[in-house]
Amino acid sequence: MELALVEVDRETVWARMQSDDPFVLVDALPPIAFAASRLPGAINIPPGSVEGRAERRIPDLDTDVVVYCANPGCESSHEVAERLVALGYRNVRHYAGGKEDWRDAGLPLEGGRVSS
Questions:
Q1: Which tens digit of pLDDT belongs to each residue from 7-29?
Q2: Which of 1, 25, 63, 71 has its CA 20 to 30 A from that of 12?
């Protein structure tokens, strides 16, 4: 069964970051890519680690979650979002533009390879 993920855009993610409305931002890229650069406040849950990490990092199934990866062609965010929904998370969104769209808009990134 194909899951239709709810999509969000860069402006929506940025607005959520600027508000007091809590949510969890999930970077679905491998740990080395996550360490190099990520959206501010993101946690790392790559596809192969969803079952173990999601339960520890996002214990409430009603939490608002936004999942992203590198760009619209990256499948990792789809995999992670679909696994979260299968595990019972009820408020999962997908930011298809990902890190590339974010960086191209000049928005801030965190990590070891981010120049100030």
A1: 999 999 999 999 988 999 999 99
A2: 1
